[in-house]
Amino acid sequence: MTLSIGDTLRLITVDLAAITFTDWLSFRDAVPGDIARVLRIWEEPEGRSIQLICEAQPGFPEWGATFRETGLTYEVVPR
User: Facing residues of 10 across strands?
Assistant: First the structure.
């Protein structure tokens, strides 16, 4: 399955060294088991990057970050 903007992911492993940017709203790091939504995807010479946001409750973001895709293991949660 191809990853798309708006997909919901369940993080299985998270390499914090793969974070290239952390949003100002982050008050904790991403951890395995988090559910995050894909905000943006783009290709770079170093590989694909994914911008994610984790909201435990709608409107209450816990963290937002941009990752190199190679630093994440995830499963797409069916819509």
Answer: 35, 75
Q: Is 58 exposed, middle or buried (0-12, 13-18, 19+ CB in 10 A)?
A: exposed
* Within a domain: 27: yes
In the chain (79 residues long), the average pLDDT of successive 10-residue segments reads 89 94 82 94 93 83 92 93
15 belongs to a structural domain: yes
Our count of domains for the chain comes to 1
Q: Please state the pTM of the whole predicted model.
A: 0.88
Residue ranges making up the domain that contains 60: 8-77
CA distance 74 to 27: 21
17/67 Cα distance (integer angstroms) = 9
Token representation of residue 64: 């937002």
